[in-house]
Write the structure tokens for this entry.
Amino acid sequence: MAMGTLLVVLALGLASTAKGQEAGSAEDANVPSALLRPRITVTASLAPTERRLTGEMELDFPNTTASPLPAIDLWLFPNHLAERPPRLVDFNYHWLYPGSFSPAHMTITAVSGAGGAPLPFEERASAAGPRTVLHVPLPRTLAPGEQVHVRVTWGLEIPRRLGSFGCEDDQCRLLGGFYPMPVVEGENGNLLAHVPARVDGGVILRLPASWQTVLDGRRAGHDGVTRALSADGREQTLAAAIRNAGTITVVADRRAEIAEERPTGGPGLVFLHREKRAPPSRGALPYLREDRPGDVLAVATNAVAFFRKLGFAVDDRELVIAQAPLRQELVQVHGDLVLISDRWFEIFPLERLRKFHVAELARGILTALAARRLVGSEPDEDVDRAAALVGAQLLDLFTVHAYRKVERAQDLLKPVDFLPVVDQLLYAPLLASSSTYFGDIDERDPVRDDARRFVDPAPSGRFLYAKLVDLLGSETIIKVMREMLEGRVPLRLAAARAFGEDLGWFWKQWLGPLPRVNYRLASVKRETREGTPSVTIRVTREGDDVREPVELQVVERDQTTHALVWREPGAEHTFTVPVPSGFARVELDPRARLVETATGSLAPYDDPRADNRQPGGWRVLYNGAGGLLDVTQQNLSFLAAIQAKPLHDLRNELLLTLRHTPAIRAGASLGYYRLMGSQADRNRLTTSVGGAAGASWLDPSYGLAAGEMPRQGWRVSGSFLYNHDDRGYLIDPWRAAGLMVSANTSLTGFSTGERLGQFSFWVQGLELIELFPGHVLAGLVGAGSTFGDIRFRSQLGTVGGNAGLRGYFPNELFSRGQALARLEFRDTYIADLDWNIAHFTAVRSLAGSFFVDAAAISACDSLHFDSRDVYADVGYSFRILHDAFGVYQQLLQLDIAVPLDRHNRSCLGSMTQGTPTAPISRLPFTVLVQFLPSF
């Protein structure tokens, strides 16, 4: 088919769309203040391997406001990606960039008006960044209801990037934003720049013929997307008419294979996947050879069947699912296109775990099906959010239908919530798509990957669904959904009917910036009324004036519960509840439905839920055993800890530690720490001050001089610690500043009768500097000394071993005083691996670290420093970053260190490495294995 024929086809499609709009005016009659949409025709050429696109856009822009417009603005989304966002940090950077930062650039080359007359234009800065808005002054002011014709020509450099906008690994995803997008002002002042408008029009796209392409959610050659090949067969040209689209979307994939399913009575399901389909396996571990495309189609088929089972009609247009490198989310919905992560089902293969992934895909399919029915009845600005809200509602019904109950990861993890890994997941998850597992209603997008989400915060359909359920009740919200899907009643009108009054306040409250509010249990008073115990509870609302239901749960001693709800406006409310068996506790917002902020009586660093429960209760965490394997000396050191802290209280903690080291056979200490400073993450503050008391049983052979006999011994101690460490990500931190000061006093006793007292201190500072993403310069300096009655080496400090010079042994460099410096260059050289090891863990990144350590140490009987007592080592750490069970980020580190100047030195009358005349024979290097960064 020639290019001219394609243009005719496109023109006919646009005409048909226009007639469809006229015919559909009855539908739009239900839509409050229906908009005259901008009409665009985009003609573009895509060179996916070069990551370049050139295009031209014909735009008919109507003035839908009540005021004259002297100029129009267009949203240049790619220029928002020209600079690395500050919120893209160590733990989430590789969710979007597999290597170094790759900027996007959109350059406007020409703007003209009707008849081809050139128009002035200016690329302006906005809150989205420099050059993110194209400002076009008009030849004459555009009156309300009038429209202007504008032609824009541009060039685009596409970033090497994961997510919804970028090219990587023979696949390009341009989910909106690859053309200058017409915008309209948003409501409630909630926009940083503008909200993309929905548009009508058409698109013509040229690209290599070998690439499978999805245009506007439709496959090339299907559902109105025409396809023509060039004379030499190397290029394809696609054309499609566009109606009521939020954005025009393109997915082009050179490696995609197609799997299809044709369910009875439903749309054809098409999956563009990037992996070979595995045959069924009946081996011992069948999940090692999975037919993931088959699993995707099975879930999609079940979701379509469920939608139809509820009585909702489904048209026969194809529903396209495309596999893509999504990291922040498992599933995205873009009109008729559902994007699914290539990490879908990469979790331990238990149905109780994988159902979270099943649910996300089902939600995406149900949302796409709902959107088809809502287009034409919802106002343009509400189509996507209404579809997402209905999708969240349908997912709850689907989950109950498939699994009999809605279960969150909190329920699954409750039996093991004493593990710190689980505690971190529950209170401060640093994992992608946390709402998949925890049902977060507060879904914020800190890096704004999607052109449709440049709203701060972006209220998701899940969020609005949760708020409407709280307001109307779960049964009523089902009726609202049916009115929307069956009666084609817009969301806001259906919700207002169900509530019995206008809900303008609701949308104003939740579609703008989230209110800053803190709820607290101001007082809980126990009393007896007419012989019956009761409790009077005063609840206060601090911060913004918010109208929402607030739940309380009162529990008696016999576990009888009372559910209370505060619905009235005002700054406080008082409940009085009889508790015949006695009062046990009260909890505000027991289902975590409120979005609270630490304000009012709380400090900014507090957990907003810190004042939501009385009595507070405790979290007891088994921190596990941190192991260090010294392969060279063939010994194992470990530190186990049990931590206790009040629920939602970030300021106080108790810590019980158990340890075994080369110097200590067994030791224990108990400490109290007061925490302060800002939040390193939602579960930890940056600064702690406290003290501990401990006792140890000493290793009788540690630090013996030549000829000395082993001696049994013990030690009791007391310590003070100040520690500041602002890293929020402990596995692979890129930026950090820290200071630690510790002081220790101890009494050591030996079986020979000696009782020896001493005092020690240590000061240490560290800094991590990100040179560029994944490449970090890390430095640490420290100094310390010990004083008192020192007679044996086991009382001395040492700079050998993992905490100091890794090329030397812990029993090698004894001294009274030490000064230490460590320097590392950490380099992540492969960042987007996908090595699935039997679903127990998945290797995501390979990294390395070149290090140099140096120390100056004093004599063993004084603080005298000699020039020969300067030691150094060099080495390399091989680091494997992996996700345990496909969820939790972990590190395996192998250190190989070479000492640069190993020599004998006198310490308390004897050589430290053997006899006074000959050094002991040792390997010229050490090998250490550990599971956290060295510092």
